[in-house]
Design a protein that fits this description.
alpha/beta; Arc Repressor Mutant, subunit A; D-Maltodextrin-Binding Protein, domain 2; five-stranded mixed sheet; about 25% strand; elongated; LysR_HTH_N
Length: about 300
């Protein structure tokens, strides 16, 4: 039995949910997949799959074995990639995962010039708010916000991500500029929702964070949607500077200064936007040139 092939077939089955579809994905006969999985289960002395007439699923131990198999196969791919690419020109598929609006506003404008410089690199870009596991998900570079990640990966700070209160100039002309937290009660809020929670506004008072008394006009997980609502005079919003730099510069939007300290959630760290990558992967030419390029042009 070729154990690495068996691991690969198990990954295929987990992805597509059947032996026949997995065989198509792996480009081998169904019998090859079936015999390989049976031999693997026999050697391990454990059932990795739950079989039914309509679907094939993983057992509890099968899920654990699948996770470890993915790590092993990914490590082998990385090792072979380093050997093959060590002295080659940057080439291959570069997988990037970025925050949706940051990707649209800051990253996308750079990609045309990057690909003109490195035509043998194919960009596979995913725009998502969900946290990516670089190794397990096969991501070469991730761009995420929040506090600085732990030391298992390299985190290069790109820009401050502090959210500040803002409004459109026309909104201010219609409804006035709030001068205190208490006056926010006369206005409506455009509120951001992360994958984990709604970012209601809080104010620091007497050493504690308290939720701001303001009615909500709209909740969205899209900064683009909130930005459009701002420009349509639907309310006030808390947004980072990088997301509305053009609108602030041309005067369509303005910051709303208040004497009190506002936060998007109680005790939420100001945070930054980081470019994340695995240190060992930096030796791969396509990743090295991309990291260096983004360090230069995303600062």
């Amino acid at each position: 039995m070729d154990k690495l092939k068996a691991m690969h077939y198990l990954c295929c089955i987990a992805e597509v949910g059947s032996f026949s579809a997995a065989a198509k994905l792996a480009n081998v006969p169904v019998s090859t997949v079936s015999r390989s999985i049976q031999a693997l289960e026999s050697e391990l002395g454990a059932a990795l799959l739950k079989r039914s007439t309509r679907h094939v699923g993983l057992t509890e131990i099968g899920k654990i074995y699948l996770s470890e198999s993915k790590d092993i196969l990914a490590a082998i791919d990385r090792a072979e990639g380093r050997v093959g690419n060590y002295q080659n020109a940057p080439s291959g598929v570069l997988r990037i995962s970025a925050l949706p609006y940051y990707g649209e506003v800051r990253l996308l404008p750079l990609l045309e010039a990057f690909q003109s410089r490195y035509p043998q690199i194919v960009i596979d870009l995913e725009l998502s708010n969900h946290t990516a596991d670089l190794q397990r998900d096969g991501i070469d570079i991730a761009i995420r916000g929040g506090s600085e990640p732990d030391g298992r990966i390299i985190a290069h700070r790109l820009v401050d991500n502090t959210h500040r209160l803002c409004a459109s100039r026309s909104y201010i002309n219609k409804f006035g500029m709030p001068q205190t937290i208490a006056e926010l009660g006369l206005h409506r809020a455009l509120v951001y929702r992360s994958p984990a929670q709604i970012w209601h506004w809080h104010v620091e008072a007497r050493g504690a964070w308290q939720r701001v008394d303001i009615s909500t006009a709209q909740i969205s997980n899209s900064i683009r949607v909130i930005r459009q609502a701002l420009l349509s005079d639907q309310g006030l919003a808390m947004l980072p500077s990088w997301s509305i730099a053009e609108e602030i510069a041309d005067g369509r939007l303005a910051w709303v200064p208040l004497p009190e300290t506002l936060s998007t959630t109680a005790n939420h760290p100001a945070g930054s936007i980081y470019m994340l990558y695995q240190q060992p992967q930096y030796t791969v030419p396509k990743i090295k040139v991309a990291v260096d390029y983004f360090k230069e042009y995303l600062q």
